[in-house]
Amino acid sequence: MSAPSSTSLAELAWLFLRLGTTAFGGPAAHVALMEEEVVRRRGWLSEQQFLDLLSAANLIPGPNSTELAIHIGYERRGWRGLLVAGTCFILPAMLLVLGFAWAYVRFGTLPALAGVLYGVKPVIVAVVAQALWNLGKSALKTGPLRLVAGAALLLGLLGANELVLLLGAGLVMGALRWPTLPRKTVPPALLQLIGAVAVLALLPTLLGWGPGAASAAGAAGAPGLWPLGLAFVKIGSVLYGSGYVLLAFLDADLVQRLHWLTQGQLLDAVVVGQVTPGPVFTTATFVGYLLQGWRGALVATAGIFLPAFIFVGLSGRLVGQLRRSALAGAFLNGLNAASWALMAAVALTLARTALVDVPAVLLAGLSAGLLLRYKVNSAWLVLGGAALGYGLHQGL
């Protein structure tokens, strides 16, 4: 692999601007697209390094795929790369959501998006399946790792807590490695990582920041910019899990307690966040625009993503330190196996919602063939699926 300094900031900016414009399908799809670009196309990272960064992103609260982009930027160009990669991945989605929010406020409804989503989802199923195959070859090298991944997949489908699965898989692999160690010592970096994750997991309870908890966000009615920003910083600091968890926080805080939004407005905001490319957390952009116009959109977006930049910056150095220890390396291998399983669980859920009829199944099969046989860039497939789905929807 080339040295980090060989990647220019312009290269990072261009890649993540493009991904932020074309990365439909949610976090699992974003991870798959990043793996294709930074591992197989550019060789910036090995599969093992990519998995380590993915596991590190899964361990901290916030939007996992955005945190992975930030980690990649940090790995290639330090703090400047961190800022460039994260900002460029977020910016296209924020601008698109801002446009939808403007149309929503002006016309009282959303443009028709059902067709775009219908065409994109089958393509994303194929893209994620290809990434799972490639990542699985690195993450699941041994029998114990495959067993851990299988157990994590089953428990994930049954609704087990993601953080418990990740830490449990790491501890299991560490325990299996322990008897073979020539020196029975636990590296400080591993203790720091486990301690930091425990604090982050307990943070909502320690600060009373669960969904619906009291905060400095203000009373019912349109909020000021400062309370609005604080509300979204809180959510970005404590939220683990999927977009459904984000919906729970927004509903409890902004609808039920503060009465800033109606239920219908919140659902429309979540729909826009899901059907536009890039991070689902740009739902905050839509909410901010509804409450305080373009200034509210900027403040809400900055608030929800700011903790991700801070957490990645603080944890980035630990990943390299962990790989230098046999015990910590085994712990990371367990995390990687569980991360693979969580991504597979999301892929299965996506497949159930995407492959709803024969045309969708055919589109997924065609996309898989083009990816595997002809190595077509997945961005073109996503755009083609969006255009085809929109055309089919308009023709109905």
Q: Give the oligomeric state.
A: single chain
Q: Given the helix and strand composition, which structural class is it?
A: mainly alpha
- Biggest pleated-sheet summary: none
Q: Which word captures the global form?
A: globular
Outline the structure in words.
The protein is mainly α and 396 residues long. It has one domain (4-202, 308-395). It contains 15 helices and no strands. The longest helix is centred in the N-terminal third of the chain and has 44 residues, at 64-107. The protein is globular.
Salient structural properties:
396 residues; mainly alpha
Care to give the gist of this entry?
By secondary structure, the chain is an all-alpha fold. It is built from 15 helices and no strands. It has one domain.
Topology:
Elements: H1 9-22, H2 27-41, H3 47-59, H4 64-107, H5 114-139, H6 143-157, H7 162-177, H8 188-207, H9 225-238, H10 243-257, H11 263-275, H12 283-323, H13 326-354, H14 358-374, H15 378-395
